[in-house]
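Trying the structure run again after the queue cleared.
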Amino acid sequence: MSNGSDTPLLDTVDTPADLRRLKPGQLRQLADELRREMIAAVGVTGGHLGSGLGVVELTTAIHYVFDTPRDTLIWDVGHQAYPHKILTGRRNRIRTLRQGGGLSGFTQRAESEYDPFGAAHSSTSISAALGFAIANKLADRPGKGIAVIGDGAMSAGMAYEAMNNAAQAGNRLVVILNDNDMSIAPPVGGLSAYLAQIVSSRPFLSLRDLAKKLANKLPRPLADAAGKVDEYARGMATGGTLFEELGFYYVGPIDGHNLDHLIPVLENVRDAAQGPILVHVVTKKGHGYGPAEAAADKLHGVQKFDILTGKQDKGPAGPPSYTGVFAAALTAEAERDQTICAITAAMPSGTGLDKFEASFPDRMFDVGIAEQHAVTFAAGLAAQGMRPFCAIYSTFLQRAYDQVVHDVAIQNLPVRFAIDRAGLVGADGATHAGSFDITYLATLPNMVVMAAADEAELVHMVHTAAVHDDGPIALRYPRGNGTGVALPAAPERLAIGKGRIVRKGKKIAILSLGTRLAEALKAADRLDAQGLSTTVADLRFAKPLDEALIRDLAGSHEVVVTIEEGAVGGLGAHVLTLASDAGLLDAGLKIRTLRLPDAFQAQNKPERQYAEAGLDADAIVDAVAKALRLNSLGIAEGARA
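Done. Tokens:
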């Protein structure tokens, strides 16, 4: 349906208030335009595509029916929120998605009043929406809390913890279950949509309440029977028994791409006196874009791509990724050792374990979005003699810290933690940065923490972890491609807590942990050119430290600089503690620690993020110059005077 002019409807909509002025018959055209706009934008920026395409109609319907932002809309994870951003005053910036200084790839409170709660990790939306709903109730303010949560996110216990506490919110809480994998309900059509509209309507709800009141007047056996008839009749018709048991009034399933079905149901839900309510919506990732619909992953995450063909711009071929090297190394270890198994939390391809699974399907376990369970499950495997590798992104391992402490470290169980996406991650920004794992792991008794300087070192560390049975051990490695170094023909078992000298000097010592080693070597070249003979050591281990090596370098060099891809409290703090305990500072030793700043860094290209963080060769040279009170030319301060 056209708006009667050549002006696209989307051009007339800057905010949801503009959207609500449209007629229901115009919404199909608007949704089609919204889908095309999103495809065009992500074709330029890259990002999450399939998930956003799947909720175009749902996004349109929610903003059309509910009074956002007074009704707070919270997207679980947030990577499906691009259509939402376009409809909430950010269309003119949508082609800055995930770029430095641009829009976040997730919801972000600082970005818009229509983003009431930031999200990039899953399964938080119901808890947050419940908080908004109860706050409004206590303050006697209007406004509902609306959570949109995917069926995959429902594998996390936090979602059920929130639902179990939702009764106090009453009709102020609406949960929309976006079922995009057909994992809960079969395909739906006109009959289920009709049933959903009926059971969400006021007459049905009022009749149901009346029936409950009458049942309460009956003798208990009859009342119980009447209640079960109602419950199971609705359960068989709609599949909602589970959610009813958790205290939600269930509506659905309904076709999430049919606006004629969505709008009346959401209007009924909006106006219902009962609550909390769960609306079960079935959608398809990648819907409405042929290349996405045809792709196995529905083009979940993409690089820049050609809109007509969907072909992604992968850029020039480079060295293998750290993730790929890890997967190949672990598969090789599993060929030698049948006790090795692998665990991931809903990230088989992201961690490379899909490749491991191809060789060892019985020894790979994808537990869903359940990091806490993943860690304790690994602890159980280790306690029974298996050698489990728990491969989880650094930022997601944070969700299971208590399990790491209580179930693994205290019991000294040999769980192997493969920590992907360690350090800064570029376009995904602060929510996905692996900034804290060195700090939160190296503080734990019994824990061994390694960081690979390059992909060859990663191969050695996988082998070292595989044969380490004395307690928990972690190896961290970054996102992206490696350095191109030749991989070893056979892996070596590294001595626990021992580093290596990469370059020998006399005056300056750079202690590197992880992939900043390349920048440390660049800095050493520049310092040598200024007459400052420089040693570079790859410590390999944040815990236990190579105390002998550090003492030797501290005693024979004037300045020691540590550098790591982690937050304060990591390697630098441990080296300073060692220096203090050993009295090394008493002799006038100058120590400078370079680490991530005490701030959450916004998205940008990784190299720019590290430069902003002061973790490149320039920053190392500057730190040495300041320690020696030299200017950039190597001349002592005050010498010219």
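The longest strand covers residues 173-179. Worth checking whether this holds up in the mutant runs.
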